[in-house]
Amino acid sequence: MNGTRTRRGYKAAAAAGAGFALLLAGCSGGGGGDDDSTAEPSADCADFESYGDLSGKTISIYAGIVAPEDQPYIDSFKPFEDCTGATVDYQADKQFEQQILVRAEAGNPPDIAIVPQPGLLAQLVGTGTVVAAGEGTAANVDEFWDPAWKEYGSVDGTFYAAPSGASVKSLVWYSPAQFEENGWEIPTTLDDLQALSDDIAGTGIRPWCAGIASDAATGWPVTDWMEDMMLRTAGPEVFDQWIAHEIPFNAAEPTAALDAVGGYLKNDEYVNGGFGDVTSIASTAFQDAGLPILDGQCALHRQASFYAANWPEGTEVAEDGDVFAFYLPSETADDRPVLGAGEFVTLFADRPEVQALAEFWSSDTWANIKAQASSELTGGGWITANTGLDQENLVNPIDILSADIILDENAVFRFDGSDRIPAAANSAFWKEATAWITGQSTSDTLDKIEAAWPAS
């Protein structure tokens, strides 16, 4: 579950703007636009020659990424439009996840959709309307992404959707000033994290603050906690077996992982800083859960990179700012499991211009254009796991940290598990996780989720 990505404002580093503006200018004079000049296209348009002349062609895109985050996407396609002559029609809808299924089942899908979960991709493929990725797109994904990403964009062995943006969930938010004042150090192992929590509790401060309230999706932050612990205590291979239901949801390994989470979230001496006792976690909105860090009422909050947008306006998010984050450590400093999420470029039309845009979209060229556009127009808030990303195009400190984590050569990435399991099991996961916070036992919680797993 990605949560509500409401931009409440946070200070960004200086915009990188010049490179993006020059790139757009360099592509002007291509096949598109109203310029009647006979001047030859600039050298930058040479990168687009393989797509051919697409003048008069329109490609529709449908997504759930709305203003202001939509503008960097719209602008990222400008070089493609200018150099090929095609028109990209980007439309966004907050009800995207429901409406894209309605449109697909009605035989009225867009040319391309930006799909945020592998589970939704599989549902769309099941409608018979999704088109397999082209050879050029597949080659780009093979070159620029970890193989796990291609698997997430595949259904029953067929590669359909190239990855695009990404987020990192394995983060812990903290106050650099509070850490410096108390002499606390960033932990590099799970044992260090335990010791740090004990040290903080010894000062009278509740080390952790948490909140899992999210309307109909209440409970999802616990699922992220548990999945992060599964990756660290059971390992990526067992994590994969668990998500695929090759081992029961209530097997020994997930039981140990949820108990490990309980060592933090159900410990009266550890939580819930600024809000109340353990049960207050269930009624605390996830958007507000980390805010007591700013008042020194708690010291740690485990939440994804997108939480940067939930700090109050004026909060400086930086290593030497009001708040920052560190990588949630594993059992050893050398282990680098990463839980995250992302988006997938899903095609419903096989026309040459649609495949051409998808191929461009999967390239390192597009990744850097998009990073520059996001940095300039919205102050950041976007990264990708595309290894061709030049991190110099990132200006936001959390983006830089997240890219360092997800692109680390030792990182072992796994996509959010609750976004990949059957809907009935996921719904039970949220519901029972909430009951667990308010007193239900680990065994009862996992037994009920296991019982909700569809028979086929």
UniProtKB/TrEMBL annotation:
InterPro entries: Bact_solute-bd_prot1. Coiled coil: none annotated. Gene3D superfamilies: Periplasmic binding protein-like II (3.40.190.10). It comes from the Bacteria. The keyword Transport applies. Keywords: Transport. Belongs to the bacterial solute-binding protein 1 family. PANTHER family: ARABINOSE-BINDING PROTEIN-RELATED (PTHR43649), OSMOPROTECTIVE COMPOUNDS-BINDING PROTEIN GGTB (PTHR43649:SF29). This is Alpha-glucoside ABC transporter substrate-binding protein. The lineage of its organism: Bacteria, Bacillati, Actinomycetota, Actinomycetes, Micrococcales.
